[in-house]
Amino acid sequence: MLVVSDLVKTYPTGDRALRGVSFTLEGHDAVFVIGSSGAGKSTLLRCLNRLIEPDRGSVRLDGQEVTTLEGAALRAARRRMGMIFQEFNLVERLTVMENVLSGRLGYVSLWEAWRRRFPPADVEAAYRTLDRVGLAGFENKRADALSGGQRQRVGIARALVQRPRILLVDEPTSSLDPRTSEAVLRLIVDLAAEDGIPALINIHDVPLARQFARRVLGMRSGEIVYDGPAGGLTGGTLGQIYDGAAGLAPDRS
Amino acid sequence: MGPVAWLGLGVFLAWSVVNLDVNPERVARGLARLGSVAARAVPPDFSRGGLLADGILESIEMATLSTLFGVLLGVPVAVLAARNVVSLPVYAGGRATITLGRTLHELIVAILFVKAVGFGALAGILTLTLNSVGFFGKLLAEAIETIDRGQIEAVRATGASRGGVLLYAVLPQVLPRIVGLTIYQWDIHLRQSTIIGIVGAGGIGATLYNAFSRYDYDFVLAILLVIVAIVLIGEAVSAVARRWVE
Question: Rounded to the nearest 5°, which phi and psi values hold at A55?
Answer without folding.
Answer: -80, -35
